[in-house]
Amino acid sequence: MSETYVVKRQEEFNTSLWSGGSTTELYIYPEDAVYKEGNFQCRISSATVEVEQSDFTSLPGVKRYLSIFQGHLDMVHGEEKKVSLEPFQVDCFDGGIPTVSFGQVVDFNLMLKNGADGKMETAQINLDEDFILKPEKGDNLLVVYVPAGTVKIEDMQVKTGELFICEDWSKELMIKNTGESVAGLGICRVSVK
Fold this sequence. Notes:
- With 193 residues, the protein is mainly β.
- The protein contains no helices and 19 strands.
- The strands form 4 sheets. It has a 6-stranded antiparallel sheet with strand order 2-3-4-11-6-9, with no helix packed on it. A 5-stranded antiparallel sheet has the order 1-17-14-19-12, with no helix packed on it. A 4-stranded antiparallel sheet has the order 5-10-7-8, with no helix packed on it.
């Protein structure tokens, strides 16, 4: 199969309200999956947390990654595992373990279940810099979210608030900062069935 590239614009995303703010679903796989039905393999979202303390929804069987783009976040997983996140740091945890967070932030989430695996990375690219993303063993889906700045991936321009998707990912891709400020990236490399 050959790689396909898609850029999704902000107006294409669905945003919904929750008790502590709003969440925007950026990507779900398969495309006809519904988050609330739990029939997804991969879900990527960004939430604005407007309350000082929030309890995470219990999601047994879901491997979760979380990063933040703004603010400072303290989390407690279960009884005692404490994690502090500054912007662009990443935490991985079991979605079935009770988790409480403290801090008003803009976050970035990757959820994996039903046989999917993968990981989240982040990057900040200075002006006129570039870097290469290479698929690792098993990776066949790459999703890159740009919370700040403008980058060029292959021949596609991806601006603030937009999402780059590469399905059937099999070769290295160059990402270049083409904007006028540091570009921030949320990178999800996934193996879906």
